[in-house]
Amino acid sequence: MSVYAGNNDFIFINCPFDENYLPIFQAIVYTIYRCGFAPRCALEEDNGLQNRLEKIEKCIGDCRYGIHDLSRTELNANNLPRFNMPFELGIFFGAKRFGDKEQKSKNALIFDIDRYRYQQFISDLNGVDIKNHNNDPVIVIKKIRQWLFTSSRRITIPGEKIIIKEFQTFMQDLPANAAQLGIDPNDIPFSDLCVIIEETVAANLKKQKP
C-alpha cells in the first residue's frame, strides 16, 4: 500500500491487464503517482479467500477518483466481447448515484480509443465526456494530468512535459531496476511496479529540490 492516505488520494484503475495494454497501464500508474495520488485496482491484493468482485467493490468504495478505459471491446476466440470494464464503470456510477455524501463526490475520467466509438456499444453514456487516447501512452499522460489538475485544483501537479519526460526515462530504466530487485522485467507484479514508481518519483523530486 502506498504512503498516501485518504479517499481523496486514491484513484481506482479500471482497465485491461493484458500484455498489449501494458504500456498504457504503466503510463496510467506512473502519472497517478507523479501527480501526488495513489493507484488502486483489483491486482493489488492476493487473498485467496476474497473473490474478484469483492476486491473491486472495496477499491471503488475507497476511491474518490476513477480512471476507466472502455477501449477493449474486441471479440475473443468465441466471438464474445469483454464486459468487465463497462461493468466496473457501472459500479462506479452506482456508488456515486446511490452512495453516501462521500461516495457522491466521485469523479471519473473515461477513455476509449476514439472519442465517439463508445456510442456503438454503450449508448447510455451519450452526453458523458469520453476522452480518446489512440493507444498512445503520451496522450494518456496528458489527459490524466489535465483531469487531475482541473478536478483536484492541486498546484503541486507538474506540467505534462515534465511527466512525459520523466516517464520516458523511467521506462528506459525499468528493466534494469526490475532485474536489480530480482524481478522478471517482462512480468512485474503490480505491487512491485508501484514500489519502483514510488521510489523513482521520490528520487526525482529530491533532485529537483534546491
Salient structural properties:
single chain, alpha/beta, disordered N terminus, 6 helices, 210 residues, globular, five-stranded parallel sheet, Rossmann fold, 5 strands
Q: How do the helices and strands line up, and which of them pair or pack?
A:
Layout: E1 10-14, H1 22-34, E2 38-40, H2 52-62, E3 65-69, H3 84-98, E4 107-112, E5 130-132, H4 137-152, H5 160-180, H6 190-208
Parallel strand pairs: 1-2, 1-3, 3-4, 4-5
Helix pairs in contact: 1-4, 1-6, 2-3, 4-5, 5-6
Description:
- This protein is globular.
- It has 210 residues and is an alpha/beta fold.
- The protein has one domain: Response regulator (Rossmann fold, 3-Layer(aba) Sandwich).
- The protein has a 5-stranded parallel β-sheet, with helices on both faces.
- 29% of the residues are buried.
What string gives the helices and strands in order? EHEHEHEEHHH
- For the record, the CATH class is Alpha Beta
Low-confidence stretches: 1-5
Counted by DSSP, the helix tally is: 6
- The first-to-last residue Cα distance is 29 Å
Q: What would the average pLDDT be, to the nearest integer?
A: 91
- Broad structural category: alpha/beta
**Fraction of residues in β-strands:** 5-15%
Rg estimate, integer Å:
17 Å
Oligomeric composition of the shown chains: single chain
What level of helicity do the residues show? 40-55%
Strand segment count: 5
Strand order of the biggest β-sheet: 2-1-3-4-5
**Large-scale geometry:** globular
CATH homologous superfamily label: Response regulator
Based on the coordinates given, report the CATH architecture.
3-Layer(aba) Sandwich
